[in-house]
């Protein structure tokens, strides 16, 4: 793990199903793990101060949460519009959350929901503030962007317009850094980077 800011930690690993690099975060003060990729070293590091919850930024980010559930017995929180993904699956039980809910101390669920109804953003009160994204905004090769058109459904241009509208709303929140499920974090200047990105549209 690397420390992005005081109490905010980041790591990444290759997702065994997709073959892509997936990014995860630990919010130390609230003992919250976001979109977890988990290996033995991480479990060992967490045993000194076990997590109290796992938060999925969308339904597709269960990843390896089952290892944290088995080791620490912590609940897994999922956006309510995505709970159907887990219906009838006793091996992946989730607690739904709604936009506007405070999921943990300093963690507020914000609606983004452009790619899919359960694609959340999380406003995090740590350091100078962070905004965490699921799939609606990615960070690759030092650039902000969207996933490829092939992942945006039948009308990618409409989805991009919805993404831009959502980002224009979110950029008005109080934050400085950005965290991504797909991409390295931006510790400082993330709000300015997002504003600059939006000038392209």
Q: How would you describe this structure to a colleague?
A:
By secondary structure, the chain is of the alpha/beta class. The protein has one domain (2-198): Metallo-beta-lactamase, Chain A. Helices cover 19% and strands 29% of the residues. The protein has helices spanning 40-46, 65-72, 156-170, 190-198, and strands spanning 2-5, 8-14, 21-27, 32-34, 53-55, 76-79, 95-97, 102-104, 107-111, 120-124, 130-133, 138-140, 143-145, 177-180. The strands form three sheets. It has a seven-stranded mixed sheet, covered by helices on one side. Strands 8-9-10-11-14 form a five-stranded mixed sheet, with no helix packed on it. The chain has a two-stranded antiparallel ribbon with strand order 12-13. Helix 1 (40-46) links the parallel strand 4 and strand 5 (53-55). The mean pLDDT is 95.
- Ends: how far apart? 35 Å
CATH top level assignment: Alpha Beta
**What is the overall number of helices?**
4
Mean pLDDT: 95
Beta-strand proportion? 25-35%
Query: Which strands sit side by side, in order, in the main sheet?
Result: 1-2-3-4-5-6-7
Task: Give the strand tally.
Answer: 14
Radius of gyration: 16 Å
Layout of SSEs?
Layout: E1 2-5, E2 8-14, E3 21-27, E4 32-34, H1 40-46, E5 53-55, H2 65-72, E6 76-79, E7 95-97, E8 102-104, E9 107-111, E10 120-124, E11 130-133, E12 138-140, E13 143-145, H3 156-170, E14 177-180, H4 190-198
Parallel strand pairs: 4-5, 5-6, 6-7, 11-14
Antiparallel strand pairs: 1-2, 2-3, 3-4, 8-9, 9-10, 10-11, 12-13
